[in-house]
Specification:
One of its GO terms (molecular function) is oxidoreductase activity. This protein is α/β, with parallel strands linked by helices. Helices cover about 45% and strands about 15% of the residues. It binds 1,4-dihydronicotinamide adenine dinucleotide.
């Protein structure tokens, strides 16, 4: 019998993160839902339990290294292992470069880039220590490879996530730990609410094959597929989950 996996998923209170929690749980994995939104995170746990799955919530601000370390420790204390770390929490503040609001800039980098760094470090160390051949998956974006005006800090962070993924994959591969990025295009979640108001959404829809926003469930399905041992050759890759947005 194969060991039941443990997946830690940040940003699990909403959107892509929540759907990924539900997906992994529906496949029999135990899920550690992490987010700074306590009510939303607890709701995800309730949804999992209602469907017969196993999950806990750990309130976490991913921009704080000590909280991400505590999250990983909590996962191992509760379930004894960590097989999947999905560094997914993110924010989408508008940060045009010529009028850069430094506070927003640092906040965006703190969550979207440093949050991923901390997840790689603490989950990677723990997997190595426990001898687990796990997988670390980072949420990038089409905006990690394509520019759009007004989102300077977001591009900086997601571009960094892509190179951090490749760099960490090289360093962790001797331990059998894979590091992969998924890069969604335009996904129907609260993070793009600002775009809905600005009318930019119709431009985005026109770019995606099929003409409709990607469903968060579709991204969750791709994350799950990438996490499987059968995907062992997918390592250091930026997997585009964008309906051709960046093609
Ligand atoms: P969302 O807004 O529905 O979910 C983001 C979650 O991250 C929320 O639950 C929020 O509470 C949490 N979060 C924010 N800051 C946090 C922090 N400091 N610590 C812990 N949790 C925090 O948005 P969505 O779309 O599900 O975003 C998930 C990821 O997907 C993000 O990294 C985002 O940049 C990325 N993405 C989203 C796209 C889209 O079109 N929706 C496209 C490409 C990438």
């Amino acid at each position: 019998m194969s060991t039941q996996r443990v997946a830690v998923i940040t940003g699990g209170a909403s959107g892509i993160g929540r759907e990924t929690c539900l997906k992994f749980a529906s496949k029999g994995d135990r899920v550690v839902v992490a987010d700074f939104n306590e009510a939303g995170g607890q709701e995800t746990v309730d949804l999992i339990k209602k469907a017969g799955g196993e999950a806990i919530f750990v309130q976490t601000d991913v921009s704080k290294p000590e909280q991400v370390e505590a999250l990983v420790n909590q996962a191992v204390e509760t379930y004894g292992r960590i097989d999947v770390m999905f560094n997914n929490a993110g924010i989408g503040l508008q940060t045009p470069v010529m009028d850069l609001d430094l506070e927003k800039y640092h906040k965006t980098i703190g969550v979207n880039q440093h949050g991923v760094t901390y997840g790689i470090i603490y989950a990677g160390r723990k997997m190595k220590e426990l001898g687990i051949k796990g997988v670390i998956i980072n949420t990038s974006s089409v905006f990690g490879v394509l520019a759009s005006p007004g989102t300077f800090a977001y591009h900086a962070a997601k571009g960094a996530v892509n190179m951090m993924t490749k760099s960490a994959a090289l360093e962790l591969s001797p331990y059998g730990i894979r590091v992969v990025a998924v890069a969604p295009g335009a996904v129907d979640t609260p993070i793009i609410a600002g775009y809905k108001a600005s009318g930019m959404l119709s431009t985005m829809k026109a770019k995606v094959m099929g003409g409709e926003l990607t469903k968060p469930e579709s991204v969750a399905n791709s994350v799950y597929l990438v996490s499987l041992d059968e995907a062992d050759a997918i390592n250091g890759s930026i997997v585009m989950v964008d309906q051709g947005f960046a093609s």
